[in-house]
Specification:
Helix content: 10-25%
Largest sheet: 5 strands, antiparallel
Number of helices: 2
Distance between the termini: 101 Å
Order of helices and strands: HEEEEEEEHEEEEEEEEEEEEEEE
Strand content: over 45%
Length: about 300
């Protein structure tokens, strides 16, 4: 009798185990990258918070809808997290590949973020988010592209490729980026955006100390969105008058595009400017050399 009871009991237990719900398979694993990140009941920023997680916590990703992930945190909670608060393993791998591919790109300028901004893996409003950068973050500017604006037949969005740290590269919306102008030439900017700024030489002034010379890719308001800068300006220092002077400025509007490159020929500073060709794709190089404060374009460029 006891044996029969044991067999029946074991059969019931096995039956119950077979009927128990299976854990939903995961799509990926993610790491929380935001402080006090909310796990919400629904995929909405106004939905009730079920729990807050700390930076470094790990979650299982079960589903993605737009910029939200449905996640599972241990055996305790399931809910929705906004994409900018977590970094999936897949996105992390793509980020590492982007950092490696960008390691030889020289910064065109530095910039600050005028507001919080999503750092994205690719340019575009719906591409994967690496994380959210805080307002005031300083970044290096590497590249600039434009994409058609959603729901518009004529407008474009500008996207800036930035390096926020030696191990992090991504794209941010151009409207959130303020290009830095060196304080010593800021008074001469005339309302232009200094899209590219390169130190091309340094001199020693007996009164002012060490002074930098600059070559600048300046962008005037309202210029073609496909163009990175519309003119070139070179600032040199007058050692007798102890002030900056414009040694060179483009006479015609350029269709300048990144990168603005600098170099050296013996003791003479050089720079190269790329201009967008008539087909809108090809880049035409123009080479310049400086003889003291005199700027000359090379005839064979």
């Amino acid at each position: 009798m006891n044996t029969r009871i044991k067999v029946v009991t074991l059969s019931v237990l096995l039956l119950l185990a077979g009927c128990s719900p299976q854990r939903e398979p995961i799509l990926d694993v993610a790491t929380v990258v935001a402080k006090n990140a909310s796990v919400r009941l629904k995929n909405s920023s106004t939905s009730r918070t079920l729990r807050t997680l700390d930076t470094g916590d790990h979650v299982d990703v079960l589903e993605r809808q737009d910029n939200w992930y449905r996640i599972r945190y241990g055996d305790e909670v399931e809910g929705w997290m906004e994409e900018s608060t977590v970094l999936t393993n897949a996105t992390k791998k793509r980020t590492q590949e982007l950092v490696l591919a960008s390691q030889n790109q020289s910064p065109q300028n530095t910039a600050t973020l005028r507001d919080d901004a999503n750092l994205r893996i690719e340019p575009g409003r719906s591409t994967a988010i690496i994380r959210r950068l805080d307002r005031g973050t300083m970044v290096e500017v590497l590249e600039r592209v434009t994409t058609p604006r959603p729901n518009s037949d004529s407008a474009y969005d500008a996207w800036i490729k930035v390096r926020s740290s030696p191990t992090e590269v991504g794209w941010v919306f151009g409207g959130l980026v303020d290009f830095v102008i060196p304080a010593d030439i800021a008074q001469y900017s005339e309302g232009y955006t200094y899209a590219a700024v390169k130190t091309i030489n340094r001199v020693q002034d007996p009164f002012a100390g060490q002074i930098s010379w600059y070559v600048v890719g300046e962008r005037k308001p309202g210029v073609d969105p496909q163009v990175d800068f519309s003119g070139i300006r070179v600032f040199t220092w007058n050692l007798k008058k102890h002030r900056y002077e414009t040694a060179y400025r483009s006479k015609k509007e350029l269709r300048g595009v990144y990168p603005l490159e600098i170099g050296q020929e013996g003791v003479n500073p050089t720079f190269r400017v790329y201009e967008l060709g008539e087909n809108g794709v090809q880049k035409v190089a123009h080479d310049f050399v400086m003889y003291g404060v005199i700027v000359r374009e090379k005839k064979d460029s």
